[in-house]
Amino acid sequence: MSRAATVLALLLSFFALSSAEDPYLFFTWNVTYGIISPMGVPYQAIMINGQFPGPVINCTSNNNIVINVFNNLDEPFLLSWNGIQHRKNSWQDGMPGTNCPIPPGQNFTYHWQPKDQIGTFFYFPSLGMHKAAGGYGLIRIHSRLLIPVPFDPPADEYDVLVSDWYGLSHKTLTRILDSGSRLSRPRAVLINGAPNSGESPAFTVEAGKVYRFRVCNVGLKASLNFRIQGHKLKLVEMDGSHTVQNVYDNFDVHAGQCYSVLVTADQPPRDYYLVASTRFQKTIQLATAIIHYSGSNLPAAAELPAAPISWAWSLNQWRSFRWNLTASAARPNPQGSYHYGQINITRTIKLSSSTSIVDGKLRFALNGVSHRDAEPPLKLAEYFGVNGSLPEYNLISDEPTSPGTPVKLVPNVITAEFRTFIEIIFENPETSIQSYHLNGYSFFPTGMGPGKWTPESRSTYNLLDAVSRHTIQVYPKSWTAIMLTFDNAGMWNLRSEIWDRRYLGQQLYISVLSPERSLRDEYNMPENALRCGAVLDLPLPKPYS
């Protein structure tokens, strides 16, 4: 073959590969009730294929993930995918504002892609207080072949789902909240569904080898500190972004957050405790799991490593996190530039949480509005343009309401202009830590500080290498600033990851519409989408083209 023919063949092969559809992974999940006994007492949990926690999704960036979910519960059910961006496709987001629930005895097939994403994520049930009963599991997204990863392949990967545990059914917790009462502190902490692994090792390592531990806080409220007896933790990824590889003794993992750490089995062979314990509570609760060195028969030492005490320590740890700007994996690229700190801010939204009594019952709010879900879901009402079913948008302003302003109990929806670069300030005037998550995006948490935010606070921002992520904490009587480009058209949930606050209204939806109404920017509603309420029998709108 001539050189020209060889070059032509290589070019044709490249174009064939580049145009080929990404691989498919198929799953069938049966959602049922099941009995577990993490504290020695039988308890009704939500299981997937008989597992608590649920099955791991082990995939690669850009894979097509197809999951047929059968709801065998006696109530509606939905799954959402914490941190998965669903580019142009909020139809797969699985939130009450985007999807009709799966009725009892029926099924729905999700089809989504982790487009240009890598890292550690999790899925969870998004209706009511279902998350308290389980139904959650880990999502691993690996880099594609030939894409360099900024660390050598580990000997193995281990998944660590940590959570607080209330020891009450999700229906009981729902009744407590609906009655106007607060949730008390949790009864326990769990690691992969258990308060301890007993004498059986949860993880086995070989001396001298390096292991990746993927850690997610899938709980309802508590910030949890993660550590391993006698071992250092090298941070390599958080919420889907590679980080500068600093070494730590322990990590605070706040509600909804995920981290990956590398652990070298470099200690004398014996058993060691992996520990997760509550933070910012008067009474510390903890769970343990055993890491076993292969071939050893020595038990773990009884003395557990101590956790830090103050939230100031936690704030300083956050300040040490840095984005790995040399990693080759996919990174968000706002407006064609990795220099997010040099992009002009087009809008600043300040969101302040509050606690109120509305109609005699406890409610939480953002800028004076306590969200309640609408039927049909907001995305469907918007897509079909249903008169009378689409709630009023932008009821809140970009500034918090004055103290004492009556709280409104309505669907809370704001709009963001497509492809604008926006700054959001979370203000926490209360005495407990908070955590916020934004679906459909990653953002740059550029600053945190005590007191109230002012424009002068921008002088403290990290405008170079803040770690792009999807969930961020706000310390008591403090503020947190994030920046992002709203370039993903759809209907996206911004919520408190403190689950009773979210359930009682501390959330909102952001409608991001492309003025072109084009498939270039957003997909049409899928043919298998479930319908409910006012859109049940309506003809389809004119499709995007």
Label this structure with key terms.
five-stranded mixed sheet, seven-stranded mixed sheet, 545 residues, single chain, disordered N terminus, mainly beta
How is the topology of this model organized?
Blueprint: H1 3-19, E1 24-36, E2 43-48, E3 57-60, E4 64-71, E5 79-82, E6 107-112, E7 119-125, E8 137-142, E9 156-165, H2 170-178, E10 188-191, E11 203-205, E12 210-217, E13 224-228, E14 233-238, E15 241-242, E16 247-248, E17 250-253, E18 258-264, E19 271-278, E20 286-293, H3 311-320, E21 347-358, E22 361-366, E23 369-370, H4 378-384, E24 408-409, E25 413-415, E26 421-428, E27 434-438, E28 444-450, E29 471-474, E30 478-485, E31 490-496, H5 499-503, E32 507-512
Parallel strand pairs: 1-4, 3-8, 9-12, 11-20, 21-26, 23-24, 25-32
Antiparallel strand pairs: 1-2, 4-6, 5-7, 7-8, 9-10, 12-18, 13-17, 13-19, 14-15, 14-16, 14-18, 19-20, 21-22, 26-30, 27-29, 27-31, 28-30, 31-32
Provide a compact summary of the structure.
The chain has 545 residues and is mostly beta strands. It has five helices and 32 strands.
* Alpha-carbon distance between the two ends: 44 Å
Main beta sheet strand tally, sense and closure: 7 strands, mixed
Provide a count of the helices.
5
The fraction of residues assigned to DSSP E strands is 35-45%
**Strand tally:** 32
Rg from Cα: 23 Å
Shape: globular
| Uncertain stretches of 5 or more adjacent residues | 1-19
Q: Work out the helicity level.
A: under 10%
Label the structural class: mainly beta
- Report mean pLDDT, rounded to a whole number: 93
